[in-house]
## 1
Amino acid sequence: MRYLSTRGDPERRGFSDILLEGLAPDGGLYLPERYPQVDAATLARWRGLGYADLAFEILSLFIDDIPPADLRRLVDATYTEAIFGTKAITPLRRLEDGVFIEALSNGPTLAFKDMAMQLLGNLFEYELGRRGEQLNILGATSGDTGSAAEYAMRGKKGVRVFMLSPNGRMSPFQQAQMFSLQDANIHNIAIEGVFDDCQDIVKAVSNDLEFKRRNRIGTVNSINWARLLAQVVYYFAGYFQATKVNGEPLSFAVPSGNFGNICAGHVARSMGLPIRRLVLATNENDVLDEFFRSGRYRVRGAAVETSSPSMDISKASNFERFVFDLLGRDSARTRELFGATLAREGGFTLTPAEFAPAAGFGFVSGRSTHADRLATIRDTWQRFGTMIDTHTADGLKVGREHRDAGVPMVVLETAQPAKFAETIREATGREPERPAALQGLEALPRRFMVMAVDAGTVKRYIEEHLQ
Ligand SMILES: *Cc1c(COP(=O)(O)O)cnc(C)c1O
């Protein structure tokens, strides 16, 4: 399997070549040259598989430059009951007739990013070892991404993580989760500023190409193809749990921000998984909902802060992948829209002819507000005795608006309520339960540095800690 860029770079690359990369050299995103097709016989064979075996089968269709025995070992080491809490890894529970919740949030940081990041940690360690190279991951986080990256990379050979976060601004739970890590290869840097200051520092350091090359600086952001690929697996796993026979249609509702999660659903559907609808749910930051209603993509100046903060985005970094497919893989038009037009006009509008096929890709959308979240969390607790987190509530609310008679809806649970206790208390008057392993988290000793908003200081710190 070879990979191409959405912006037309003629070069084709193997999986291992793009594994450690972010953007393609022409600024585009990587996609496989074609989506492998899964026929009825394959679906029949896969239905009985456990999660790790299923992951191996799916990944093998996209990865041909890692020996199968090695890939199997990496996958088996990743999707275990010890790491993901249950044998099913992404267990499905029935909420009401035809509505299910698939838990993607039973990993170490209680959010769905663990599903991909845990595999990425093992793949990075393997590939860096094979090349005899090192990688220093520099990132900025306001919560979920940073902690998922740190828990995936902790103790991994050849990898160091330098994670910037706004000092005192993450939730107490998130701070405790990240700062209690004692691994020597994890560096928490609390910046005396806001999240944008952290991101600006990462940009400043990354723009210093000489520094970047000399110190082998990389990232693990959501545009990484391997992350997206790992997420394809749970669409299949959810399908097999929610249906009795192959061929039955099923819909998924996906709480969305950067379009990474639902883009994996698009890949699964493109492979032939019988997905009726991909329901995209946004919060008040509704740039994607606007697109799927109108064909107009309008990047916002800044994201609004909401009670489903992991979906607070002003532009969706994976969205270009879908638009490329929607445009029949026209890379010249994709380059024009996401390059010059976006830079000049802050967005673009597809022509009616370009936008019309979107429905054929199964996409529909909706938005949810703070009041909707409170009502959905309260209702789910009162009627079903189930607590759901704020992001999952957005998915459930919008998913219900797009039900088709006789077609089950699987809502992806992207985080556990324990991470967002304040809103859960507001909605239900109760404290969300926390997994036993995380009791007393806030009392653990912490390991982090506080630094001024200054890229030079951060650079010096990185160089001093590479030995
Ligand atoms: C990251 C995240 C999302 C959004 O996922 P995207 O892939 O960015 O669309 C939704 N919910 C939670 C809890 C997250 O951490």
## 2
Amino acid sequence: MTNRDWVQRDLSVLWHPCTQMKDHERLPLIPIRRGQGVWLEDFEGQRYLDAISSWWVNLFGHANPRINARVTAQLDELEHVLLAGFSHAPAIELAERLVGITPAGLSRVFFADNGSAAVEVALKMSFHYWRNRGQTKKTKFISLANSYHGETLGALAVGDVALYKETYRPLLMEVISVASPDCYAREAGESCADYSRRRFAEMEATLARYADEACAVIVEPLVQCAGNMRMYDPVYLKMLREACDRHGVHLIADEIAVGFGRTGTLFACEQAGISPDFMCLSKGLTGGYLPLAVVMTTDDTFDAFYDDYASLRAFLHSHSYTGNPLGCAAGLATLDIFAEDDVLGSNRRLARAMAAATAELTDHPHVAEVRQTGMILAIEMVRDKATKEPYDWRERRGLRVYRHALKEGVLLRPLGNVIYFMPPYVITEEQIHTLARVAREGIDLATRD
Ligand SMILES: *Cc1c(COP(=O)(O)O)cnc(C)c1O
């Protein structure tokens, strides 16, 4: 079977995510036969360097022997059991270890099976907490402009990426939106910290105004990933934590994309020295192997639900694959790698290599900014460097970069006009130079006319 055979069969039965299927009349679909380390390989032996960690999930490479071994061993013991009334070692061990490595105070672990579901859980738990505490007027959520929290209706409502949200607006709950602290919009000469601090005034005013009605503020700490990899300073999170406490509003940290070392620390909240009331984790949680998610929360939250059955205060939310043992085993193997190897130290070197390899792009006539937070590096391609005027989205210039990269054996998947690297942590410095070269060529091609 060749690529073509698989593509033909695929296109007659599959409906792909986040895709206008008609694009595939011209845009080749790439069937992958196997993965190894940073590499994906198709059915004709062509290899692609997975520079975006297969949608930000993969941490330690495809077919990682250590994760493979643990999942395989688990497969022989127990593939799945319901987590209501029953339990199993991988869920218990994973929960214990997550409590040990996440910010202080996060002492309870609620399992879900994907990131959007985790966001739904956090929103429902926060609302339900206030209700159980007698605060029935608290029914609203506050979120940041340009944020992304997933695709299910609740998660979509608190998010703000128009491309995904606009069509469904009539179905979505109303959310209080606050301007993003995203430093791309800072004044010339203004530091990112000063800009994020200045931006906090609107959040402070919003919290003051809606304290009686707001359950929680939900944010993606430090990097708004799906919102074009926009970045902000930790000072904003510090101020947000303090203000949420002062106004009696929960803080939900959606670390689904930024958790597990992406921003340079194990969790992004660490850079602000804060603990949220809820932390959502998924994606890297299993090293990119299996769908699994958790919502971590505090004793205070847990206690608000703990009562006699007839009080009807329990959190009666579930998903069939909640806490799946295979996913938990992959999670444990992933945490073992963090514990045994100096992952964060090695990532610091890789992050420096990414910065060095892309340094010259700062001067490119169609690059407005090269920004970086740890292992996430983004290049903002614009029509006009001086005014930051973007290219019209209909021109799909990012797609030209995508096509060029594929020809060069690299999987880059720009978000609109933003080209980014978010590679598995097993990438080498030499491979980083390849990424930078291919990105540079792609940008040259895409901005030629
Ligand atoms: C990917 C993502 C989600 C949604 O996770 P899924 O598993 O794709 O549903 C939520 N929040 C953030 C910040 C994400 O990047």
